[in-house]
UniProtKB/TrEMBL annotation:
Ranges for domain Gamma tubulin complex component protein N-terminal: 45-356
Name this polypeptide is given: Spindle pole body component
GO BP terms: cytoplasmic microtubule organization; meiotic cell cycle; microtubule nucleation; mitotic cell cycle; spindle assembly
Pfam families associated with the record: GCP_C_terminal, GCP_N_terminal
């Protein structure tokens, strides 16, 4: 048929360029021919035209403005009369519709829609050619004439005209440069005309629509079953399919939220190393607009379940095995129109969502995992306090082992086969104010050392990173971040983007906890120092130091109480009190929770967060400087109470000896403390710390006042 198409298309421009013999055979001694002979020659000439040969009597050209054809007559035939010429023109118009279909076939448009339409066109064109051949065979033995030819072709006239308008009259404004979505535009036009036409036209168009939907629904099923289109012989077939795949990070709308469910499973695929899928709206048929993302999500969800659909879900099970029939009635569809098709997709999507949700709760211990996230990342249990207490004396490897022991203990009571891993890691993101706007860049810096792929985990999370050194003095407390390796399906809820926010919240809370720990250590120092004799002229310096400590403690304790109690605890109580009947309701509620927490912790307010992190750094730096001075033998004093009961004299023979030792200790410690307070460097350090703290606290309050946060009432 392709060679026949090429031959017939050669006459699109119609001309007198026919063979000399053929031209002479029809026109020789024309004026001496009878009217019947002339009509017979016209019939044979038109039959040649339908077979792809040139015409001896007519020439035509396509009008670029309206795509119609203009016909010019050979002056030689003017003597046959206008009626006969008009019949010839009417027959030629049937041929012009034939040419339109042939042009579409010869264009070799790729895609399931165009392939299906082309197959129908080829069948109709072959039937037309058989009709022309039969008429020719009869006409050369017994004269039939132009009117009989027209009557003979008239049944094809409406069919060809309807189909020609189908591939020419569509919304061409939506056509993209490479014409790859032409099939979708034709399908939209086909669906619209099936609704508006009646009678035989409607039956014809409905037959074409059923044929297209048959192939299109099989394509949807292929995506759902196999998730991607990596097969070489299948690539061109999906050109006009609305689900697109890309293996790399080339541009796609995957950074946007899916407009059907509100989450983005295309980004989820990228996160877990699957082919990146996304919905290209330019290729979505109008009747599938509201369920296009549902189709995408069905494929992703079933891949998570590793649950392939064993039969075509759009067909009744009894007839789904039938694959070799051109009769649309041979297939028993579960849908009778495109509305029912969309509804069927919605039902399949709901079933897939329910199955994944059930699997998450039963097999993956979803709510246990969520509780672990709340406990560890949001410091709802004392595990992280233990890490803070040992931060200055243990290596990262030891801290991770200590942390994992808590995780293992919590998980021992659970039935899940996948054992989650929590571990600490260091990064160089010390000031993370404003980083939520740059997730695509910083997400990898804060991300897990492991990426769970189809082949499993790439590394273990408990191995010591040699680049960090063995002891904590080789890394900054501001760089500590908590990472969590979780099961693949759990990442539907705990996406990389969500976990990124949890990690930022942990960084903030960890820094506050570490600052609190440092201040507590400093408080113990001052309690013991207060037991010693301080020279009167040095008391203002000691009081300034104590006053600075109290200011810092007041701020840090109020911040921790606000974040951990007023914000986190209250929001978690609200979250746990709600019922989540399906996966989407849980996802939306959890995302709302995370967004509320990040906002309440000022992770979305760059000015407030930046000034807060500066205050934390000043507090830790002040504590560290005091500790550094105290470790100097010139200024240090015994940290145990000089009036400890265990050191008190308990027998008369040791009384004088112990009294002498007590007096010496008190005298030496007092001397060292007074020497420290008299030191200009130490005095200057305390004054600078107090001044910087007051200045930045004022700035923090100024930024905070514009946020309408309840924290304004607490500090």
């Amino acid at each position: 048929m392709e060679s026949e198409c090429a031959l017939i298309l050669s006459s699109v421009q119609g001309s007198f360029e026919v063979s000399d013999d053929e031209y002479d055979r029809f026109t020789e001694d024309w004026h001496y021919l009878s009217i019947k002979q002339k009509e017979s020659n016209l019939v044979l000439d038109l039959l040649n035209v339908f077979s792809g040969l040139g015409s001896s009597f007519f020439i035509w050209s396509k009008n670029s403005e309206n795509s119609s054809f203009d016909i010019e007559n050979n002056p030689l035939i003017n003597d046959v009369g206008n009626d006969m010429i008009e019949v010839c023109h009417e027959i030629l118009r049937i041929h012009f519709d034939q040419l339109t279909l042939l042009e579409f076939v010869a264009s070799s448009y790729t895609g399931v829609i165009c392939e299906s339409i082309t197959a129908e066109f080829v069948e109709i064109l072959e039937d037309l050619q058989e009709c022309v051949t039969r008429f020719h065979d009869i006409h050369i033995t017994s004269f039939l004439g132009l009117q009989k030819l027209l009557n003979y072709l008239r049944p094809s006239m409406q069919t060809l005209s309807t189909l020609a308008s189908l591939v020419t009259e569509f919304d061409s404004k939506r056509l993209i440069d490479d014409n790859s979505n032409i099939g979708v535009l034709i399908l939209d036009s086909l669906d619209f005309r099936c609704r508006s036409e009646a009678g035989s036209k409607k039956l014809l168009l409905q037959h074409i629509l059923n044929s297209v939907l048959d192939s299109y629904s099989l394509l949807i099923n292929h995506y759902i079953n196999f998730f991607n289109f990596s097969q070489v012989d299948f690539t061109d077939f999906v050109t006009d399919f609305f689900i697109k795949t890309c293996e790399n990070d080339e541009f796609s709308p995957s950074n946007e939220r899916d407009y059907a469910t509100g989450w983005n499973l295309g980004s989820f695929c990228r996160e877990v190393g699957w082919p990146r899928v996304w919905v290209d709206e330019r290729y979505v048929p109008k009747f599938l607009k509201n369920v296009a993302v549902s189709v995408l999500e069905i494929g992703v969800l079933l891949k998570l379940l590793d649950n392939k659909v064993q039969h075509h879900f759009l067909l009744d099970a009894k007839t789904s095995t039938i694959t070799n029939s051109n009769d649309v009635n041979f297939r028993k569809y579960k849908f009778h129109n495109v509305e029912e098709l969309a509804l069927l997709i919605q039902n399949v999507h709901k079933n897939a969502m329910d199955e994944v949700y059930f699997s998450l709760k039963r097999n993956s211990q979803l709510f246990t995992i969520l509780k672990m996230v709340f406990d560890y990342f949001l410091l709802q249990k004392s595990y992280i306090q233990d890490i803070v207490n040992n931060f200055n004396t243990s290596g990262l490897s030891d801290l991770n082992k200590r942390l994992q022991s808590y995780v293992d203990r919590d998980w021992d009571n659970s039935t899940g086969s996948f054992r989650p891993k929590l571990y600490l890691k260091c990064d160089d993101l010390y000031n993370f104010a404003g980083v939520l706007e740059y997730y695509s860049h910083f997400g990898r810096d804060l991300g897990s050392l492991e990426v769970e792929t189809l082949d499993g985990l790439e590394k273990t999370g408990l191995e010591q990173d040699s680049s960090l050194g063995e002891w904590n003095n080789s890394f900054d407390f501001r760089g500590i971040v908590l990472c969590f390796d979780i099961e693949l399906t759990i990442r539907l809820i705990l996406t990389d983007k969500i976990m990124y926010r949890y990690k930022l919240m942990f960084k903030l809370l960890f820094q506050l906890k570490y600052a609190e720990y440092c201040l507590n250590q400093l408080t113990q120092y001052h309690v013991r120092a207060g037991q010693l004799a301080i020279e009167p002229e040095l008391m203002p310096r000691f009081n300034l130091q104590l006053f600075t400590l109290n200011k810092m403690q007041y701020l840090i304790k109020n911040l921790l109480r606000f974040f951990l109690v007023d914000v986190v605890s209250e929001e978690l109580v609200s979250f746990h009190s709600a019922n989540y009947p399906d996966l989407l309701s849980l996802y939306n509620a959890h995302e709302k929770l995370v967004n509320k927490l990040t906002e309440s912790m000022f992770l979305t307010n760059e000015q407030v967060l930046s000034s807060l992190l500066t205050l934390i750094l000043i507090v830790v730096k002040f504590s560290s400087e005091v500790q550094t001075f105290n470790e100097n033998p010139t200024f240090s004093f015994v940290t145990n109470s000089v009036y400890s009961e265990t050191d008190s004299p308990n027998c008369s023979s040791d009384l004088m000896k112990n009294i002498s030792r007590f007096l010496t200790t008190i005298e030496n410690n007092s001397l060292n403390l007074n020497t420290l307070l008299r030191n200009p460097g130490y005095d200057n350090m305390v004054k600078i710390a107090s001044t910087e703290f007051d200045k930045n606290l004022k700035l923090f309050k100024s930024h905070l006042s514009s946020s309408n946060s309840p924290l304004n009432l607490l500090i």
